[in-house]
Amino acid sequence: MTQTSLMSDSITAIQLLTTLEQAILPLYEQGIQSKAQAPKLVLAYSGGVDSEVLAFGLSAFAQKHPHIACLLIHVHHGLSPNANTWVDHCISRANYYQLPVQIERVNVNKGPRESLEAKARDARYQAFERYLNPGDILLTAHHQDDQLETLLLALKRGQGPKGLGAMAPMQSYKQSWLVRPLLSISRPQIEQFAAQYGVNHIEDESNQDDSYDRNFLRLEIIPRLKQRWPSIATTAARSAALCAEQQQVIDDEVSNRLPHWLTLPMDIDGLVTESSGFKLAELNQLSPAWQALLFRGYLQHCSVSLPSQSQLQQILSQLLDAKDDANVAIQWGDYQVKRFANSAYVLTNLALAPLDATRLQNDIRALFAGELNQANGKVGQQTVSLQIQSRKAEFAQQEGSVSTTPLLALPATHVQVTIKYGAAGSIKCQPQFATSQRTKPRELKKLWQECQIPPWRRQQIPLIFYDDILVAAIGLWIDKRYIAHAGQPGLSLPLLTKR
Fold first, then answer.
1. Residue 355 confidence (pLDDT)
2. Most CB within 10 Å of its CB: which of 324, 341, 442, 457?
3. pLDDT tens across 333-348, in order?
4. Averaged over 404-427, what is the pLDDT?
5. Selecting from 3.90.550.10, 2.60.40.1530, 1.20.59.20, 3.20.20.70, what CATH number does the domain 262-352 have?
6. Is 160 annotated as a binding residue?
């Protein structure tokens, strides 16, 4: 996106309005062409000098373009004793600008070894997201000195080109856009503008607390850098832009190569149980740099938070060095990487959590006592559990020969019916999909492999037993010997429900 170069000592209201128009109007026009609903502008409005100057400019923009809806959002964190006073200030100024304002109150709960800055930022953006529709434009008041701070923090963390690219003037955000129209304007220019045009603003006392990394840079380091090199904010922004360009080239090349490395999603009876995996067969033929780039691209493709560089190296080392049958499980944060059939899969800890067997038994009791008695008339009071995630099994009359969706034959009156999650791999069964040449039952562990069920899902598939005999795996198969014959009532098993 092209922006006006603002290198003079001061900026005017006309220049500010022009900068906003250059940043906003192309995205707005793109939005009204592709969306039924016209995009709106949402300003992250703190009441500090940066966001006040941006709100001042947005007011002029709204007067010139009254057909474009605008909204100011002020987030009340409750972290300062002055927070309520800031709310009053923002409401008063919004009325002055003739712009609607929304006050959002959030709770910021910092856990051990967590950054209060990061938690507050996350809470703010979650509040903004509640007001963003697809195609909307979120405006923030980040400026050139913020860019220098971001670049220095990226160096401190040892980040690569992506981190050193710092903040982009415009980027996609969720299904919306995030725009930083003041990124070419310095902090002194913003402060001079506020003084020239009488823009009232608040002063957050926490900005003087140098225990926060950004404040330390802002108060102690950057002034000394500017004293030695007055144009460092401008030149650092140029370096960040070059890093961002290089990263874009890398991202484009990864996007071109990545499809070759992705597996198709795995499904059970039409239900997708795993998203795309990452092939490992030829990965060790690539350089370590490309291994890391492609696997990081896979994680981004799966929309998960990225591990650190050291964690990524550990993941790749374990995946590539492990034997084919090794049970690889590498965890970071809320995610795990597992290996199956020479491919890697990223999963959430929630998806891997064991199922609640007690809940299962409570949910699925006494189905046979009612419906089966009505269907058969000869079934006694078996101990039964056959309802999966509150979806009752349906009974049907088997018609003709065995169909593509066979029914499970009803048990004899003396048979105890139970459902289990997990069973010994040596238990045998003879699924209806077995070939005619295969006349003997196969071990369960072989059937899991034949159905391409990864080990972490095998404990989540309900197995039906008649006494000690495995007669069906819900969502996968029915034992040939227990399929209802033509004209006989049977049980239509429910489909699996993805967790």
1. 59
2. 457
3. 888 898 888 889 998 8
4. 78
5. 1.20.59.20
6. no
Helices 232-257 and 288-301, interaxial angle, to 10°? 80
48 is in an annotated binding site: yes
CA distance 72 to 54: 11
Consult the annotation and say whether 47 binds a ligand. Answer: yes
What pLDDT shows up at residue 269?
Answer: 52
Which residue matches tokens 């034959």?
A: 409
Q: Which residues are CB-contacts of 106 (< 8 A; sequence separation ≥ 6)?
A: 75, 76, 77, 78, 123, 124, 126, 127
Give me the percent of the chain exceeding a pLDDT of 70: 82
User: Which residue intervals of 302-352 are DSSP H helices?
Assistant: 309-321, 349-352
The reply, when asked if residue 303 is annotated as ligand binding, is no
Exposure class string for 210-236: b at 16+ Cβ within 10 A, else e: eebeebebbeeebeeebeeeeeebbeb
- Distance (Å, whole) CA 335 – CA 302: 11
Q: Give me the CATH code for the 13-253 domain, please.
A: 3.40.50.620
Sequence-distant (≥ 6) Cβ neighbours of residue 284 within 8 angstroms = 291, 320
Q: What is the dihedral of CA 251, 255, 258, 259, to 10 degrees?
A: 170
390 is in an annotated binding site: no
Element (H, E) at 463: strand 462-466
Q: State the amino acid at position 268 in one-letter form.
A: I
Q: What is the pLDDT of residue 326?
A: 67
Cα–Cα distance, 178 to 42 (Å, whole number): 10
255 annotated binding-site participant: no
Tell me the CA distances in angstroms from 246 to 144, 148, 266, 297, one per residue in order: 20, 18, 35, 16
Amino acid letter, residue 206: S
pLDDT tier, 453 (very low <50, low <70, confident <90, very high otherwise): confident
* Domain coordinates in residue numbering, the chain: 13-253, 262-352, 357-492
β-bridge mates for residue 279, sequence order: 343
Report the alpha-carbon distance of residue 105 to residue 361 in Å, rounded.
Answer: 42
Q: What is the pTM of this model?
A: 0.72
Q: To 5 degrees, how large is the angle CA 256–CA 260–CA 265?
A: 115
Grade residue 180 by pLDDT with cuts at 50, 70 and 90: very high
